[in-house]
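Hypothesis: this fold can be encoded by more than one sequence.
Test: take the structure tokens below, design a sequence, compare later.
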């Protein structure tokens, strides 16, 4: 038997063919590393990221580090949290390969869990460009993408703590550390040194007026405000002389008396906590229904000059049953008196929107105050508004098409199909079985 000449020629050059095939395999391996092509064959592309998530990942060029603190999976009880997290993050890693995922248990690495302030099992720490945020289960694409969106705003999320909030001599260091820890958990970067506020490119500045400012810091603060900087200002029963010019620009008036929510309170009481009664319609208070508690509140009012261009909104209203401390009502029955405790200022300056929030409580950012009610969430909402970080991504969940089946109540076809599967087909199979047995026995 003679082989065909072209085929015989091909066999003779089998070694060359093998070398060519190996080269092709190497080229395919190289291109598979350089270029990614994937097709999601699931219903509604449930295993792929949506376009908003892909856009957020493209805006984050640096690496993202993720640390999950979760117990080991228990297959006997159906606990597969670690595996579900790996599958979930794999969707993001296919778009952005430089996402690292580490999974630990709090028992395996307690020192790391303490340093990251882990509170519950399943808590996740996400770090990006020296900023970190915590997220708690359950986790979906919308929540995780919004967290990445906040971390991507690195420039607008830089915050400086000026005056007493940045001086350990004038304020207990524990309050400063608690505030810094709370801001870091929300993804805000804290500028330790505030020598040059304008050069730091801050998203917002936190100012406490419990102590006087030096002349150099007053000059920097005025330049910061003149150039459109955003400010969170806690005021006391009086405005310091060093900040009187800023108060005059804002038309800010602070009451010397402490607000008492209950007329039966005594002046000698150490704490005079009051609760917020009403919130104005504002982006800060949108979908916010928690109680805000003030320790040493003072009534504030803002009436800036019209040429300043400020729009003032009384944000938080406290209603008392008597006048402020040290005043008595003339009527026998106590009357309801409203007091403004938080004001927001907003204007457009040189094609830029400038925002200022004034809180009539210099103790509002202490560790004790942040642990009460919804104070920490309220501060978070204020900073989101000041840093223009309130934008969120909305992602509709992708559901299976056949997850639910609706059967009409008065339709004959579904009942016929059900009776056929449940009774007719089993009966027919039973009849055929006995019929075949009967025919075999007759043979």
């Amino acid at each position: 038997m003679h082989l065909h000449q072209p085929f015989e020629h091909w066999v003779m050059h089998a070694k060359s063919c093998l070398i060519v095939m190996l080269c092709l395999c190497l080229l395919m391996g190289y291109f598979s590393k350089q270029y990614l092509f994937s097709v999601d064959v699931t219903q509604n592309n449930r295993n792929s990221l949506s376009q908003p998530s892909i856009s957020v990942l493209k805006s984050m060029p640096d690496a993202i580090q993720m640390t999950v603190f979760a117990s080991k999976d228990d297959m006997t009880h159906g606990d597969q949290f670690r595996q579900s997290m790996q599958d979930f993050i794999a969707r993001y890693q296919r778009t952005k390969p430089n996402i690292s995922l580490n999974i630990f248990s709090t028992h395996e690495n307690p020192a790391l869990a303490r340093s990251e302030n882990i509170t519950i099992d399943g808590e996740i720490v996400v770090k990006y460009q020296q900023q970190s945020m915590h997220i708690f289960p359950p986790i979906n694409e919308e929540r995780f993408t919004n967290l990445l969106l906040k971390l991507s705003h690195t420039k607008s999320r830089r915050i400086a703590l000026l005056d007493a909030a940045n001086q350990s001599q004038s304020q207990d260091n524990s309050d400063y550390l608690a505030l810094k820890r709370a801001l870091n958990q929300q993804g805000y970067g804290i500028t330790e040194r505030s020598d040059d506020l304008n050069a730091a490119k801050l998203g917002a500045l936190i100012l406490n007026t419990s102590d006087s400012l030096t002349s150099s810091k007053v000059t920097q603060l005025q330049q910061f405000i003149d150039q459109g900087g955003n400010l969170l200002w806690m005021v006391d029963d009086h405005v310091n002389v060093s900040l009187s010019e800023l108060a005059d620009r804002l038309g800010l008036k602070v009451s010397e008396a402490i607000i008492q929510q209950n007329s039966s309170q005594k002046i000698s009481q150490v704490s005079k906590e009051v609760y917020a009664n009403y919130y104005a319609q504002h982006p800060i208070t949108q979908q916010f229904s928690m109680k805000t508690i003030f320790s040493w509140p003072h009534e504030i009012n803002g009436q800036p000059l019209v040429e300043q261009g400020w729009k003032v909104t009384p944000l938080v209203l406290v209603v008392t049953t008597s006048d402020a401390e040290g005043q008595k009502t003339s009527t026998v029955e106590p009357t309801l008196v409203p007091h403004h405790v938080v004001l927001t200022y907003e204007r457009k300056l040189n094609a830029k929107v400038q925002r200022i929030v004034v809180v009539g409580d210099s103790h509002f950012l202490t560790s004790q105050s942040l642990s009460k009610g919804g104070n920490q969430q309220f501060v978070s909402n204020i900073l989101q508004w000041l840093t223009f970080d309130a934008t969120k991504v909305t992602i509709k969940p992708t559901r299976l098409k056949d997850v639910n089946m609706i059967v009409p109540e008065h339709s004959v076809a579904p009942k016929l199909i059900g009776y056929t599967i449940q009774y007719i087909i089993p009966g027919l199979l039973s009849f055929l079985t006995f019929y075949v047995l009967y025919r075999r026995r007759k043979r």
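The longest strand covers residues 337-349. The two ends are 55 Å apart (CA to CA).
Hypothesis status: open.
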